[in-house]
Automatic annotation (TrEMBL):
GO terms for cellular component: plasma membrane. This is Tetraacyldisaccharide 4'-kinase. Pfam families: LpxK. InterPro entries: LpxK, P-loop_NTPase. Pathway: Glycolipid biosynthesis; lipid IV(A) biosynthesis; lipid IV(A) from (3R)-3-hydroxytetradecanoyl-[acyl-carrier-protein] and UDP-N-acetyl-alpha-D-glucosamine: step 6/6. It catalyses: a lipid A disaccharide + ATP = a lipid IVA + ADP + H(+). The keyword Metal-binding does not apply. The gene is lpxK. Residues 1-26 form the signal peptide. It comes from the Bacteria. It comes from Jannaschia donghaensis. The lineage of its organism: Bacteria, Pseudomonadati, Pseudomonadota, Alphaproteobacteria, Rhodobacterales.
Amino acid sequence: MRAPGFWSRRPGVASMLLSPLGAVYAAATARRVARPGVRVGVPVLCVGNLTAGGTGKTPTVIALAQRLRDRGTQAHVVTRGYRGTITDPTRVDPSVHGADDTGDEPLLLSAFAPTWVARDRAAGARAAVADGAQVVLLDDGFQNPTLTKDLSIVVIDAGAGFGNGRVIPAGPLREPVATGLARADFTLTIGAKHVDLPAGPPRLYGHLEPLKTGMDWNGLPVFAFAGIGRPEKFFDTLRALGADVRGTEALADHQPLTRSLLKRLGERAAALSAQPVTTEKDAVRLPASLRGQVMTVPVRLKLDDWGSLDAALADLGL
C-alpha cells in the first residue's frame, strides 16, 4: 500500500479525526511488547523502526552481518518474510525459493548471511541456532515480543523522520516515539538531514552509498522504477551518479511486479529510449527472463563511526 499523503504533513483534519484509532493502536502495541520473550542461547540483535514502511533496515542488517563476519562471528538473519507464502521456519535458498515464497528482502539478505523466514520468530531463531548461528539478527522485529532482544537498533530515515508524529492510522508511527525509544539501545539516523529526537539512547549516524561496480552511469539515459519505502531516494541516487533520468515510476513498497505492470514499464522505457533500472530489492522480484535486461544500483550502509556499536557488541561477547 502507499502511505497516505497526510502522514508526511503537519497534523491536519484527517489525522485529528483518526487520532482516537491511533490511540487504540498504540495501546495494543504497548500490551503486545510487554509480553515476556524467550531466549535461544545466543545473543539476539534487533534492527527495527518506529514507522510503517522502509527506513533502511535491510542495508543495516547487511552491514551488521558483514561487521559480525569480520569479527569472526556467524550471524543468521531471522525475518517474517513479508508477502511470502512460507510460514514454517525455512532457510532461504535462492536456487529453490522465489520472492513469492519468501518475500523480496529475505532473498536479498540471503546473499550476505544465512537467512530464515518464519512467522514465529522464536521458532525461526531456534532453527537458526540449531544450524550454527552464533548470533541472531532479527529483521524488523522491534514491536514483536516473541524473542528477548539483547540489543535493539531503531533505524530512522532522516528525510522522512517521524512524519506527522501520529500513530497508525492517523500517521506513520507504530507506537509513540518516546515509548519506542525507551526500549532501544541505539538509534541510527540514515541520511544527511538531522532528526530532532527526545532524550534517549546513544545515536548512530550513517548514509547509503552506491557500491562501486565499475559501471559508468554518467550521461546514461535511464528509466527508473522502485517499490521501496521512499522511491525518490533511489531516483536521487541515480541523478547524483550522473545518470540522465528520463522517467521514473514510484511503486508501492513491495508491490508485485505483475506481467502487465512489467509490460507497461518496458514500454515506457522504450518510448524514452532509456535503460530500465531498479533497486536490488525490486530486482529479486523480477522474472528470471528479465533480470539481465534491467540494471540495478547496489547501495551499502556506511556508518560515520562504529566505535560505540562495536563496544556494545564486545560487551555481548561478539
